[in-house]
Amino acid sequence: MEALLVNYVEKSLEQYMRRNAVFLCERLYAEFPSEVNLQLLARCYLNNNQPHSAYYILKGMQMAQSRYLFAIACLEMDLFCEAEAALLPVKDLCAEVPNGAAVQYLLGIIYRDTDRKNKSIEHFRKTLSIDPMFWAAYEQLCMLGEAEEAAVCFGDATVPCVQEHYLGNASSCLQIADTDHSSDSSQRFGLEYLSRNDLKQREGNNIRVMCENNHGGPSLTGAVRLSKNSCCSTSFLSTPSPVPTQRSDVAPPPLVRNIHLRQSEDSLRPNTQARGKFACDNESAQIRGSLFFDSGLRRSARLAVGHRSLNTSQGSENKAKSLHASTKLSSETCSSTFCQGKLMETYEVAVSEFGATSSSLSSTTDVKSIQHEIENTKLSSFISDSATIKSGISNTMKLLRTLGEGYRHLCMFRCKEALNVYQKLSSKQYNTGWILSQVGKAYFELVDYLNADYAFRLARQISPYNLEEMDVYSTVLYHLKQDMKLKYLAQEMILVDRFAPQTWCAIGNCYSLQKDHESALKSFQRAVQLNSRFAYAHTLSGHEYVIMEDYGKGVECYQTSLHVDARHYNSWYGLGMIYLCQEKFEFAEHHFRQAYQINPLSSVIMYYLGTTLEALKRSEEALEMMEKAIVIDNKNPLPKYSKAKLLVTLGKLNEALEILEELKECTPRESCIYALMGEIYKRNKKYDKAMLHFGIALDLKPSIVDVAKIEAAIEKLIIPDEMEESL
To answer: Which is more confidently placed, 15 or 311?
Structure first.
């Protein structure tokens, strides 16, 4: 009963029938209370989005897997202290925790969320040292700005580690197939190693395995046992406790199935052809299945020979009759339970072939040759599949190197380098939603909104269900003033997932573009409610407060965003803008410099940092910063205009005039350019040209403040400065 319930609980979890799994597992634990069954119940609760239930039933449990599941529940409930205590017991902090890389990763997450950056980085690096294919750990290191080069983390030196990690199961299966195990080992792997002299019980086991397969149900995870007195016992399934397996990500090897004797010898040999796609779990399963299947067949034949050698006085014909009589008894029992019809016919054919195989082995030499053949088959299979897996690992690590290097460049805001790396990917990998979204984000950081829009549109076409980075796409459309596209994007995202924070960020950008800042702010706050650790939602809320000139609440939003992610440079930039508007230039410089250290390739940040330095009367530093901004983005007119103003301040009028002439060609509708040119001509005492440019500036309808400045400059042209000074 216990094994049956465990099997159906696992089956329900595999089929995502979570409510059914919870119900059956509650019945299981009520009938057979054990900590192992409690772990299975906790898994059901976690899968059914009931972390609080898992938390209460696992609290105080001491088994390693129980502590691991308890930590998962605590993380879901933001109980970081208890999660840390479960993974690293307070009594022995240096003790090795279970589940290897996964636990190290969870500890890294805990330390990251509790502002212990250095320890977080340490555990993420430990995760990669244990399992180099743990991409999520490298992703976190990139976000923290502490990732090593991808060639180090995913280099060729990591191939043996990955191979050892994923082929260890196959090696253990080889050892299990060659040696008899204790009853504890039998329960662990779901296998039953029978006595070599007990052929009747072996045949009875074969009957049950065959009945199980032909009945149409899945294999039971519990151990299959035989009655000590007779193989025809009505209740031949015992109900042992499930195996307390700590490595939940590794499936147990399949049961030995010796009944498939009709297959040819070639079908028993593993396929040695190289496979194009690497899948470590599937290949390990194939290795295990091939080895156990082959071992089962050979051992059945060997057992038959050993049984016959004990009765040398009897002829082979009598031995075959005895074998048929034994199997007939087991067959009748199976028929009385649930094996009927074609099952019996299949079994009789199989048993007849089994007898023929047994009678064909007549000497010890035959047994030894078969044993040698088994060993050679296992060895060749293992070597062949190991080579195939090693090749697959190398290809996988090469792919991860490319992806990791591109992602690292993007997190360090080296966007051009990231784009170059992503271009090296194959078309299959490049034309995926994740890659195209990263490409779109890179163009967004480069302030190339048109290419960003194109990349994001391709990503939407390929994976319309993926909402990752779609909040950035909504900001791209906001900057492009694409009102209709932004509305359509928001509606599509609502249809996909209305409870995703990215969806509400898109809705908020849509309202903000329509100047409905109250509704935009409510949308951003809704995103924060859905995920309090979504830094961009806090930042967008701060932007809305700044637009509404509520600087106090804007500062709070930016600071909350930085508490979530200290490398979120947009919030540093937002704080700098607030202090710049309040003319707190020292504070503004500090926050702009923080943003600049995080993203040293943003021309926008450089421009505002230069503006702040100019306000602090540090013209030389400001000019240097503007020149850097121009080098980074030659298409951005703001640094060029500011550079011209600084040159005028420093008395370099001709250099400033050259820059303004260039700007006039690029942006002919900007009144400030003509006003500054008029000022330069006035200083050079070219009053006619000065009046002409002041007039053009007024015709372009500048702001009220600029109109007043231009009119005052025109008055000074009519009354020269010398006369004004004499008066």
So the answer is: 15
Instruction: Give every CB contact of residue 23 below 8 A, 6+ residues apart in sequence.
Output: none
CA dist 326 and 328 (Å) reads 5
Please state which of the ranges 62-66, 128-132, 225-229, 431-435 shows the lowest mean pLDDT: 225-229
List Cα–Cα distances, 109 to 92, 313, 386, 521, 530, in angstroms. 21, 72, 34, 29, 19
Above 60 in pLDDT, residue 316?
no
Of the two residues 502 and 63, the one the predictor is more confident about is: 502
- Rounded mean pLDDT of 335-357? 43
**Closest by alpha carbon to 283, among 272, 296, 298?**
272
Query: How deeply is 317 buried, as exposed, middle or buried, from its count of CB atoms within 10 A (0-12, 13-18, 19+)?
Result: exposed
Q: Which domains does the chain have, with CATH numbers?
A: 1-141 (1.25.40.10), 467-565 (1.25.40.10), 669-726 (no CATH)
Confirm if 377 and 176 have CB atoms less than 8 A apart.
Answer: no
Q: Give the residue-averaged pLDDT of 580-588.
A: 94
pLDDT of 393: 85
Alpha-carbon gap, residue 173 to 185, rounded angstroms: 12
HEC string of 562-594 equals HHHCCCCHHHHHHHHHHHHHCCCHHHHHHHHHH
**Residue 5 contacts by C-beta under 8 Å, 6 or more apart in sequence?**
24, 25, 27, 28, 31
Please provide the average confidence, as pLDDT, over all residues in the chain: 76
Distance CA 585, CA 609 (A): 10
